[in-house]
Every structure is written in structure tokens, then in C-alpha cells.
Specification:
By secondary structure, the chain is mainly α. It is built from 12 helices and 6 strands. The strands form 3 sheets. The protein has a two-stranded antiparallel sheet with strand order 1-2. Pfam families: YceG.
Length: 343
């Protein structure tokens, strides 16, 4: 009996000692995790997709953000948060403790990057912007991306976003927008499919860069189509000539359309074909698509640039001819002033 009592006492003592050591160890670990970190400056730290905690903790120690990678690994092992690490780019504050760093990497918000992809650009032009972005990763898609299938906008993304994923996101945004706007379209429009809406919106987008003019230009084109008139849009000629790239003369300067190009029949030249171009001529934005689906009432059927970034609208050919004469007079005056300045 004495032996048994002694053995039980020993077991109890060992348990108490173990608990005391474990408790002391837990307190010590908690203190270490809560200590201010060694870094005196803000750190931008990137966790790559698929990167494990072992690698991340080693890099944090190497970069001087934490004192011990081993302690950080022990902490996440005890907490069971080894698999909770997020990928992305994170801001770690000066002297951040290991606990604060873990909270940032597991629960914090990664730094957001943005890329602005403007309305009115062709798909090829948008893809060049995406390819040139220094933060996006991965190759460009191998399959061609259809003209007009991407929704221009400013897109926010985390570091680690692939170019292919962003392009897919832009295409989905376009599909979602059409699914939202198409059912709310005006009755009696001379377009019968969402794709035709995008085609007409692309012409509107290329004709004016002014938001306040988009509804009027859309209404004018809708009116022309209803009356069986050709759209007669210069950007559609350009698309048929160069797929939307700027036109240059032999000296490398931007030029206007040639008479032979205006007379050339292509699948896009709306001076030579009835109805809409074969495909969109750029990627229109939300406002242009919304404008062609719900245009205001208008009697205008002609318009010409005013030389100041806008357009002059007309209801009759005679009025339009006067506007054209006024624009040409303005243009000649600008050329004369430019020559006088350069002399």
C-alpha cells in the first residue's frame, strides 16, 4: 500500500510539474509572440500563391521582421492556423509583434493594386495594357479574345492576380452588365441581340469622348437605323483599314482618312454598308451600352465635330452643311494660328 501511495504521489507531482512547466512555457510563448518586433520601418511583404508557412516564416526572419521563424511556426502549429495563410501583398507596421504579423497574414486585407482600362480601346489595345502591367503575373491567353467582349473599367486586384484571370473577370463583367441592362431596353429599338447593342455602343464610344454627348449620339444613330439610313461613322472606316489602330502618314504623323479609304467597302465601313458593322470596333463602357439601349428622343440625324472636343448636331442636311462649313472655317483658322506660332 505504501508503495502504491508513493507511486500515486509521484504521478501527481509529475502531473503538477508538467502542468506548471507547460503553463510557464505557454506564458513565455505568449510573451514572446506579443513582444515588439525588430523592424523599425514599415515593411511590404509578399506571400506568393501556394507558399507554405515554413518558407514564409523563414523569409520574415531573414528580412528582419521577426526574431525567430521557429517560434512563429510553433505558434501557428499550436493554434492550428498553418493552412490559413493568405497570398497577397501585406503592409507590416514598424515593430509589429509576431501576433500582429500573424493577424495581418491570416485575417488582414492585402494591398490592392489597380489597373485602368479605358473605354473606346480595341481588344488588342487593352491586352497590350494588361500585358505591360508590372504587377500582374502569368502569360497572356493563347486563344484570341473577341472584339468588344471586355468591359473597360478600373479593376482592383491583389498581387498574384494572373493576366488570364483578369481578362476572364473583364469578360464576365461584360456578360453581367448585358444581363442587367438588356431586359430593361427600350421598346422598338433597331437592334435585336445584346451583341448588336455592343456593336452600336462601340460606334457611339468611338464617336465621342464626352459623357454628356453619348446619349445624343446614341439617339442619333438609333434614329438613322430606324429610318434606313447608313450610320456613316468615320471610326468604322478606320477599323476596316487598321483594326482600330491610329493612321499615320509616311512621315510618321497622324493623318485623316483618304478618299480611297472612305470609298473602300469593308465589313465595317458604314459609309458603304447598310446597318451595323460586322463586329464591335472597340470595347464600349457601361454608359455607351446603356445609352444605346435607352436613348432619348431626338430629331437629329447629322453631326460633325466642332473642333473643341464636342459636336454640332443637325436635323436637316442643309443645317448639317452649314455646321460642316463652320467646322472647316474653324479648322482653317487653327491651322493658320499654328503656322503663325511656328514661324
Amino acid at each position: 500500500m505504501k508503495f502504491i501511495r508513493a507511486l500515486l504521489s509521484l504521478i501527481v507531482a509529475v502531473v503538477i510539474l508538467t502542468a506548471a512547466v507547460a503553463g510557464a512555457g505557454w506564458i513565455w510563448l505568449g510573451n514572446e509572440v506579443a513582444k515588439d518586433g525588430p523592424s523599425s520601418a514599415e515593411t511590404l511583404f509578399v506571400v506568393e500563391p501556394g507558399e507554405g508557412f515554413s518558407t514564409v516564416s523563414s523569409r520574415l526572419e531573414k528580412d528582419g521582421v521577426i526574431r525567430s521563424a521557429w517560434l512563429l511556426r510553433l505558434k501557428v502549429r499550436i493554434d492550428g492556423t498553418e493552412g490559413a495563410l493568405k497570398s497577397g501583398e501585406f503592409v507590416i507596421e514598424p515593430q509589429a509583434s509576431m501576433g500582429e504579423i500573424l493577424e495581418t497574414l491570416i485575417e488582414g486585407k492585402a494591398v490592392m493594386h489597380k489597373i485602368t482600362l479605358p473605354e473606346g480601346r480595341t481588344t488588342a489595345q487593352l491586352l497590350r495594357l494588361i500585358e505591360a502591367d508590372p504587377v500582374l503575373i502569368g502569360p497572356m491567353p493563347e486563344l484570341p479574345v473577341a472584339e468588344g467582349s471586355l468591359l473597360p473599367d478600373t479593376y482592383l486586384y491583389h498581387r498574384g492576380m494572373t493576366r488570364a484571370k483578369l481578362i476572364a473577370q473583364m469578360a464576365k463583367a461584360q456578360d453581367d452588365l448585358l444581363a442587367e441592362l438588356w431586359p430593361m431596353r427600350q421598346d422598338g429599338l433597331p437592334i435585336s441581340t445584346p451583341q448588336e447593342a455592343v456593336i452600336l455602343a462601340s460606334v457611339v464610344e468611338k464617336e465621342t469622348g464626352r459623357a454628356d454627348e453619348r446619349p445624343e449620339v446614341a439617339a442619333l444613330f438609333v434614329t438613322r437605323l430606324k429610318r434606313g439610313m447608313r450610320l456613316e461613322s468615320d471610326p468604322t472606316i478606320i477599323y476596316g483599314v487598321s483594326q482600330g489602330e491610329p493612321l499615320y502618314n509616311k512621315a510618321g504623323k497622324r493623318r485623316t482618312l483618304l478618299r480611297s479609304e472612305i470609298d473602300r467597302k469593308t465589313d465595317w465601313n458604314t459609309y458603304q454598308i447598310d446597318g451595323l458593322p460586322k463586329t464591335p470596333i472597340c470595347n464600349p463602357g457601361r454608359d455607351a451600352i446603356a445609352a444605346v439601349l435607352n436613348p432619348p428622343e431626338t430629331e437629329y440625324i447629322f453631326f460633325v465635330a466642332d473642333g473643341k472636343g464636342g459636336h454640332l448636331f443637325a436635323k436637316t442636311l442643309a443645317e448639317h452643311n452649314r455646321n460642316v462649313a463652320a467646322y472647316r472655317k474653324y479648322e482653317r483658322g487653327e491651322i493658320a494660328r499654328e503656322r503663325a506660332t511656328n514661324e
